[in-house]
Amino acid sequence: MWLRKGVKILAILYTLFIVYASLGKYMMQVIPKDINGGDKIAHFGAYAVFVIVWVLSISLNTIRDDRGRYLKYIVLSGLVLGFLMEICQYVFTSYRQMDWLDMVANSVGILIGYLVSVKFMRLS
Question: Cys-Cys link to 48, which of 53, 63, 69, 109 (CB 3.0-4.6 A)?
């Protein structure tokens, strides 16, 4: 019982972290500038983990027959979140900029997270 709630809370907190990391001024200093494409790697990883954490939460909190349906919602939510964060960077911040390649990196991360999650769901 506590594991189910804990993973759901983790998924919610991780989503809030993505929002903070996408819009926060201080998060820009976390990614080393000397790594070529480091920003895209961070976007990719963040959204792959987003899908995996939410799938883990759903896997622990729903019956097996409903998991595939929820997986579609998680993927769609990740895509919408990534798109909205890029739009919000453009509209609400002066220190961030919208980047289509970031959206591509987010989407590839979601795809990889999806593939890992499908493999995980078959094993469980």
Answer: 109
Structure tokens at 36: 């070529």
Residues in the chain, pLDDT under 70: 27-35, 62-65, 121-124
Domain boundaries, the chain: 2-27+39-123
Q: What is the pLDDT of residues 34-57, one digit of tens each?
A: 667 778 899 999 999 999 999 999
- What DSSP assignment string belongs to 17-45? HHHHHHH-SGGGGTS-TTSTTHHHHHHHH
**Residues in CB range of 116: below 8 A, 6 or more apart:** 48, 51, 52
Q: What whole-number distance in Å separates Cα of residue 22 and Cα of residue 111?
A: 20
pTM of the model: 0.86
- Are the C-beta atoms of 115 and 49 separated by less than 8 Å? no
